[in-house]
Amino acid sequence: MESAITRIEEIATVVDGTARRQLMLTLRHLAYSLEEPSDTIHRFGHSHLQTAAVKVGFDLGVFKYLSHAEKHITLEELVDVTKADVLLLGRFMRYLASIGAIKEVGKDRFTANDVTNNLAESVCEAGISHCFETIAPQYQAIPGFLRKTGYVTPTDPLHTVLQDAWNTQLHAFNWLAEHPDKLAYFNDYMASRRTPELSWLTVYPVREEIAASSWGDTVTTRAIYVNVGGGIGHQCAQFKNMYPDVPGRVVLQDLGHSIAKALQTPGIENMAYNYFDEQPIKETVRTGAKFYYMRGVLHNQPDKEARVLLTRTKAAMAPDSVLLIDELVLAEQGLDSYSATVDLTMMAATASMERTEEQWHHLLDSVGLRLVKSYPYNPATYESVMDTSTGIVGAPTHAGVDEYTQKGYESTTSQKPRQKDTHVMAALYIPYTRSIFLCSVPDSAAIKHIKASGATAAPAWWSQVHSRQPSLELHAEDGVAFRYEDSLGNKLAPGAT
């Protein structure tokens, strides 16, 4: 037994990331398998007390004091520091030691352990205080709410568990804004979670995407990065810090009360904006932003509301714009407790949800957006940034596919003759637009029909491109890659007869 425990302790010192979480999960399930009914009752029935006791520890400053101490601390010393009653404090300290929050090294003597050091961090105090003060009452109200509503998925953000728990008619975020003490915990927790080490910027090819863009002469006035619903600006600051040499405007957008408290980072514009309104940074002759970025915005919204704000953003996007959606992309099975907890918490607060990749595809497809690729940057918690565009579903990105290239066109020549009046299907990939258009082209190479997914007609700028280069095969000079294909599926070289 001792050798097995020693081996596990050795492994625990070297694993990290996904392996660390897997080890924790395995050990927990092993512990669960040893439970008797009384153990299960204690684990589930008294879990509220753990959070309450930790909150008392925060209020008294116990964890920070133990963490900063260079030796064990006596109960009498803690009484002098906290001014708490000796009997009361002793009872709480023994309970905190029993749940692993601190270490008891002798009678009325305590020291810090790894969990204590975690609890001494501001992110832990803010996060657990937010859970205790704001979320826990909602958990308590979940069974009654679901019983009353017939056990159906909530879809109305103004009729959720939160409204019942707090006896309010306000939306969750409006209610939070009216309770500044609780809002402070929430903001501090969110800010502390946005560390550069766990960021989409570590995985997404920003420079490569810009290089494939129609940046042109608008580079100094066009927005390179717009953070929609970006809080007080931590993500904008990280972007500016990582790409200080990239020209273009960096813009933070959020509601007025958040912008009023926003960071004053040089080179960043702070703009009050409600993402359900028309996006002010929009396409007017290729002036839409290159990157529209949303982190933790859509998981606050049920599908109906999410479609509204996605549609607002899509309407503002230029042909080469990218919408970056930074969210959890849940596993289809074997979900961990953390992500499943966040999912039900969002259901209770805003009638929203965390989504699987299939659910993200369904949501984006419903508004004419395309999920090009997901870039996981924290696989242990399913955090990913999703690259989405307005291109036709199934179309390639700027990397190209088959015969399509950014530099021009390549096609497999067929010598098969065709009738002079036969219309040829041309699949055009326009690199700077991240889209494919399907065209029916007669011998004259004039456009007879063009369509794009989610649109009833070609973009307004198509006629300008076509009039500038009326011969379709010459569009390669404009950065257009394409191929001809006749009704039998034969690939034809441009201009073949």
Task: Give the helix/strand layout.
Elements: H1 2-12, H2 17-33, H3 37-45, H4 47-60, H5 62-68, E1 73-74, H6 75-82, H7 86-98, E2 103-106, E3 109-111, H8 114-119, H9 122-149, H10 161-166, H11 172-177, H12 180-193, H13 206-211, E4 223-228, H14 234-242, E5 249-254, H15 256-259, E6 268-272, E7 291-295, H16 303-316, E8 322-330, H17 337-350, E9 355-356, H18 357-365, E10 370-378, E11 383-389, E12 424-430, E13 435-441, E14 449-451, H19 462-468, E15 481-485, E16 491-492
Parallel strand pairs: 4-5, 4-7, 5-6, 7-8, 8-9
Antiparallel strand pairs: 1-3, 2-3, 8-11, 10-11, 12-13, 12-15, 13-14, 15-16
Helix pairs in contact: 4-9, 6-7, 9-12
Would you write up a description of this structure?
- This protein is an alpha/beta fold and 497 residues long.
- It has 4 domains: 75 residues, Arc Repressor Mutant, subunit A, CATH 1.10.10.10; 69 residues, no CATH class; 164 residues, Rossmann fold, CATH 3.40.50; 100 residues, no CATH class.
- Helices cover 41% and strands 16% of the residues.
- It contains 19 helices and 16 strands.
- The strands form 3 sheets. Strands 4, 5, 6, 7, 8, 9, 10 and 11 form an 8-stranded mixed sheet that branches.
- The longest helix has 28 residues.
- It is globular.
Keywords:
disordered C terminus; five-stranded antiparallel sheet; alpha/beta; 16 strands; globular; Rossmann fold; 19 helices; eight-stranded mixed sheet; 497 residues; Arc Repressor Mutant, subunit A
